[in-house]
Design a protein that fits this description.
The protein is α/β, with parallel strands linked by helices and 232 residues long. The chain is built from eight helices and ten strands. The strands form two sheets. A six-stranded mixed β-sheet has the order 6-7-8-3-9-10, with helices on both faces. A four-stranded antiparallel β-sheet has the order 2-1-4-5, covered by helices on one side. The radius of gyration is 17 Å and the shape is globular. The structure holds adenosine-5'-diphosphate and magnesium ion. The site of magnesium ion (MG) has 3 residues, from α1.
Length: 232
C-alpha cells in the first residue's frame, strides 16, 4: 500500500433503471496521495460531482471499492459514513451552503463542535482559521453581510475546522467573479503548500493550474491524466 489518502477500484455509480439508466461514474481507478492537490475537469454532466460525492461518502457506489485513510467507505454503515463525513472530510460547494442565521465564526466552528471539541477549543480553532483566510475582522458578520468571495472563504475555513484528511470542493468558484476567484485561488494554493490534500472540481484553468495533477473526465470515465510536475 502506498501513502494514498483516497483510493478507488473500479468505482461505479448508476442512476435509474432499464432504458433510463445512466452510468454517471464508470469504473474509475484512482489514487490520491497525502498532500496532493488534484483538479477534476470535464464537460457538464460527465460525472464530476457524482465522483466527488462517492469519494466523500455523500452517495454510495453501485459497484467497486473506495478507501479513505485506509478504511473502506463503500461498505460502511450509515452511521459510519456520517461520522466519516463529519470527522475526516471537508466539503466546499459552489453555493457556499453557509447557515444564514449563524455568524462567520459560528459557521466555521460548527464541524469542530459536531466532532466533539469543546466550545472553547472550537472557537479558538475557528478564529485562527478565519485569521488564516483573511477574515479575522468578519468573524461576527452574518453571511448576508459578506461578499461572495468572503462567503466562500468562510466555507473553506469551515471545511478545515475539523482537520479533515481531505477537502473536496465542487466548483468552488462557479458562483464567483474574477476577483473573488483570485481570493479562493490564493487560499487553495496556500492550503496546498501546507500539505492539505485537496480534490477540486473546476472549470477554471487558473484553479486547475495550482494542482499537481489534472484528471479529465468524459462520460463518467477518466480520459487523461496530466502530470503537471512532469510537464514542467
Ligand atoms: N441523483 C441523480 N439521479 C439521476 N441522475 C443523476 C443524478 N445525479 C447525477 N445524475 C446524472 O449523472 C450524470 C453525471 O452528473 P454529475 O455528476 O452531476 O455531472 P457533472 O458534475 O460533471 O456536471 C448526468 O447524466 C446526470 O444527469
Ligand atoms: Mg457538477
Amino acid at each position: 500500500m502506498s501513502d494514498a489518502v483516497l483510493r478507488t477500484r473500479k468505482v461505479r455509480k448508476e442512476f435509474g433503471t432499464g432504458a433510463g439508466r445512466v452510468r454517471a461514474v464508470d469504473d474509475i481507478d484512482l489514487e490520491i496521495a497525502a498532500g496532493e492537490t488534484v483538479a477534476v475537469m470535464g464537460p457538464s454532466g460527465c460525472g464530476k460531482s457524482t465522483l466527488l460525492h462517492l469519494l466523500g461518502g455523500l452517495q454510495r457506489p453501485t459497484g467497486g471499492e473506495i478507501e479513505l485513510g485506509g478504511r473502506r467507505v463503500d461498505t460502511m454503515s450509515e452511521r459510519g459514513l456520517a461520522r466519516l463525513r463529519r470527522d475526516r472530510i471537508g466539503f466546499v460547494f459552489q453555493a457556499f451552503h453557509l447557515m444564514p442565521e449563524l455568524t462567520a465564526v459560528e459557521n466555521v466552528e460548527m464541524p469542530a463542535l459536531l466532532a466533539g471539541r469543546s466550545p472553547r477549543a472550537a472557537r479558538t480553532a475557528a478564529l485562527e482559521l478565519l485569521d488564516r483566510t483573511g477574515l479575522a475582522d468578519r468573524a461576527g458578520h452574518l453571511p448576508s453581510a459578506l461578499s461572495g468571495g468572503q462567503r466562500q472563504r468562510v466555507a473553506v475555513a469551515r471545511a478545515l475546522c475539523a482537520e479533515p484528511l481531505v477537502v473536496l470542493a465542487d466548483e468552488p468558484t462557479g458562483n464567483l467573479d474574477s476577483a473573488a476567484t483570485t481570493e479562493i485561488l490564493r487560499l487553495f494554493d496556500r492550503l496546498h503548500r501546507t500539505g492539505q490534500t485537496l480534490v477540486i472540481v473546476t472549470h477554471d484553468a487558473r484553479i486547475a493550474g495550482i494542482a499537481d495533477r489534472i484528471l479529465s473526465m468524459r462520460d463518467g470515465a477518466l480520459v487523461d491524466q496530466t502530470l503537471l510536475a512532469e510537464a514542467a
